[in-house]
Amino acid sequence: MSYDLIFMLGKKVLNGEQLTFSEALQLTQIDEADIPILLGVANKVRIKFTGNQVDTCEIVNARSGGCSEDCKFCAQSAHHDVKFDSYPLMNETQILQAAKAAESHGAYRFCIVTAGCGMKHDPDFEKITDSIKRIGRETGLERCCSLGILSPAHVKALKAAGITRYHHNLETSKSYFEQICTTHTYDERVETIKNVKAEGLEVCSGGIIGLGENWQQRLELAFALKELDVDSVPINVLNPVKGTALEDRPPLKPMEVLQTFAIFRLILPTKILRYAGGREKALGELVPLGFLSGINGMLIGNYLTTSGRGADMDLTTVRNLGLKPIAE
Amino acid sequence: MNSKEIIQLGEAVLEGHIISEQEALSLTDTCEEDIPLLAAYANKIRVKFAGKKVDMCGVVNARSGLCSEDCKFCAQSVYHQTNAQPFSLISNDEALAAFSKLSKAGAERASIVTSGKGMENDPDFERIVALIKQVSTIAGIEICANLGTISYDQAALLVKSGIKRYAHNLETSPRFYPAICTTHPYQERLNTLLAAKKAGLELCSGGIIGLGETWNDRINLALTLRSLDVASIPINILNPIQGTLLEKQPPLSPLEILKTFGIFRFILPNKVIRPAGGREINLRDMQGAVMLAGANGLIIGNYLTFGGRDIAKDFIMVNDAGLHPHIK
Q1: Residue B100 confidence (pLDDT) above 90
Q2: Per-residue pLDDT band at A305 (split at 50, 70, 90)
Q3: Annotated domain spans of chain A
Q4: What residues form DSSP beta bridges with A146?
Q5: CB contact at 8 A, B23 and B263
Q6: What does the DSSP 8-state code read for residue A109?
């Protein structure tokens, strides 16, 4: 009788208690016919702890491709032979234009993303901080960035430039990370997140599901994010890009994707759980159900190397569901 | 109802409880944040009593427009000036082509539909019977009929010509019906259903929501259909057609539509509940959600006077929801 378990654990979370790892693992084993009930419970948890608001964020791929790292899912890795536009850092005007466009699409946050392992000895760093300052002067956007591995000095400089939140995914669990990337370690990622937090910046960190990880590993990621007390958790669903090592990875079933969101919501009741890349392909017409399954944030517009379904459509969906886009 | 009461009632229905009018009305008080839970229980009820199959049905408008009746929603009434093109009864060849096309697209059943109040003194009736006999020879598709008011004798003739199911909507509750149609009484519709049933036909009967009816009316319609033991319940959602009296009727919200489907499933646990015309315009990208809120059938392809969407999309949607259309 898995619904008994769902209600018992749902009630526990609604009462402000923490879900344990083994409890979360039980929720991965429920009958398929009970998954919608789990989604309904996650929706209640989300409304109780985060209200009816939906956080919106748009990203710009400000420097694309040629990355030294070998992340198996990534179109931008130099280790993969993928057809897409590779380009050096956009100039300040181009980045500002992207920010203004994002604001007009209804984004509350804007994130500058660059390809590469990180900012160590990176000559572009100063140009990026200049762009961040400019966006602060000319838009009302919350400013985020995603620049890879950072030193404490970088974090200080970003904070001074006006960054309020730093994005850096853990991607997957510690135990699965080596299957996904061999050119840097999971611990380096954790260290960057700790450096960012030490300076008082908020953190946006999540990962990708459907890489071949098992349920246990997916939950390890959720609990690692909980342990790090990150503020926002973007969840990508693998969109297998041709030419990457994962191009033939079979897709997750849509109901399993929704189940994952719901379990993440129960593990992370108060955080922003954010729709990110791959959702359109993985969920098809079930995308709106994510907003009723624990999701309370989303990337709008396009992703780094793949297209989204359009900000207008997403914002309309959110309003149709009686939810409120944060920028409205 | 609050979530606890929804769960209790849902569990009772799963155990075979037949819900009362009072219980059904209490369900209509469910607050927005609990609608996913209501939908999830409707889904469980549907899986338990009706399985995971989705019944895919098409319609063929075999004679259109110039209808003597004044149904306020209808583009085919002579009382309205609409863009719907009237045409007389299609030929046998045209009918064969239309039904074959639906069969090929995946429909497991399709209904021949004619405009007009009914078949009393209708010179086309004989030709329609001949036409049905001919289309009944198409392999792999069951033919239903939707010809308006019919007598017992006509129903018996239809049975002989190969029809197993007769479609005739009640449209709305008996209380609200006079506000929708004044040229023939509700009782005439009931009489047709009873005559068809007596002749051994299964019944397909539902209605339209969003006409301006109250929740009471909707519940009353569902209970009336339950008492008639209809096999299939198409639920149209008003698509306000320019030129009809309801052209300015405000649309229902997608969540209210989901709630309606969920409550219908609680009332009619083992029947085919079928989203029909108006689903695209009213549910938009929430059509996948309704398949997990108790619906287990669809009208696919085009409707009588306006277009539907690509049939292949509906098959993908149903599969994404973990459900199974009848596969040919």
Answers
A1: yes
A2: confident
A3: 37-318
A4: A113
A5: no
A6: E
Q: Which residues of A touch B292 (CB under 8 A)?
A: 36, 289
Chain-centroid distance of CA B89 in Å reads: 23
| Encoded tokens for A218 | 């997916």
Residues with Cβ within 8 Å of A249's Cβ and at least 6 positions away in sequence, in order, are A210, A211, A212, A238, A240
User: Cβ A317–B292 below 8 Å, yes or no?
Assistant: no
Q: Which runs of E-coded beta strand occur in chain A? A: 53-63, 109-114, 142-146, 165-167, 202-204, 207-209, 232-237, 272-275, 297-299, 324-325
What's B253's DSSP letter?
A: P
Q: What is the mean pLDDT of the segment spanning A145-151? A: 93
- For B292, phi and psi rounded to 5 degrees? -105, 15
To probe the interface with A, which of B292, B309, B311 has the most A CB atoms within 10 Å?
B292
Most confident of A63-67, B58-62, B216-220, B309-313: B216-220
Q: Which residue of B has its CA nearest to A309?
A: B285
Identify all chain B residues contacting A320, using CB atoms and an 8 Å cutoff: 253-255, 284, 286
Whether residues A40 and B37 touch (CB distance < 8 A) is answered with yes
Q: Do B37 and A288 touch (CB under 8 A)?
A: no
Is B43's CB within 8 Å of A43's CB? no
CB A76 within 8 A of CB A64: yes
Q: How far apart are CA B213 and CA B210, in angstroms?
A: 7
Give the catalytic positions of A in this structure.
Answer: 67, 71, 74, 111, 144, 204, 274
- Domains present along chain B, CATH in parentheses: 3-325 (3.20.20.70)
- For residue B229, give every residue at least 6 positions away whose Cβ sits within 8 Å of its Cβ, in sequence order, or none: B197, B203
| Structure ipTM | 0.84
CATH number of A37-318: 3.20.20.70
Give A1's pLDDT tier (boundaries 50, 70, 90).
low
Is B138 an 8 Å CB contact of chain A? no
Query: What is the b/e burial string over B244-256, where b = at least 16 CB atoms within 10 angstroms of the residue's CB?
Result: bbbeebeebbbbb
